[in-house]
Amino acid sequence: xxxxxxxxxxxxxxxxxxxxxxxxxxxxxxxxxxxxxxxxxxxxxxxxxxxxxxxxxxxxxxxxxxxxxxxxxxxxxxxxxxxxxxxxxxxxxxxxxxxxx
Length: 101
Hints:
By secondary structure, the protein is mainly β. The chain has one domain (2-100). It has no helices and eight strands. It has strands at residues 2-7, 10-15, 19-23, 32-35, 38-43, 46-49, 57-77, 82-100. The protein has a four-stranded antiparallel sheet with strand order 2-1-5-6, with no helix packed on it. The chain is elongated. The N and C termini lie close together (9 Å).
């Protein structure tokens, strides 16, 4: 079974057993979470989308806090002596999809 689920404002295509990194969600390692905002399902050729979807994606948190790569935002105006450097590392949660019900 395949599903498209909305997690923290982003859409992910998932199957049972998939492991993925999502934007940071609350919970500790080993906790189980459910995502009820499912947009699309495909169950062996039977397709459901929109309001007709009645599925819930269940997942387990593998690692509660993973930092992404550093992203640098560098601004400069030539011949003016203006330079500004900002950076950040996004936080993610590593989850494993256990079931789509």
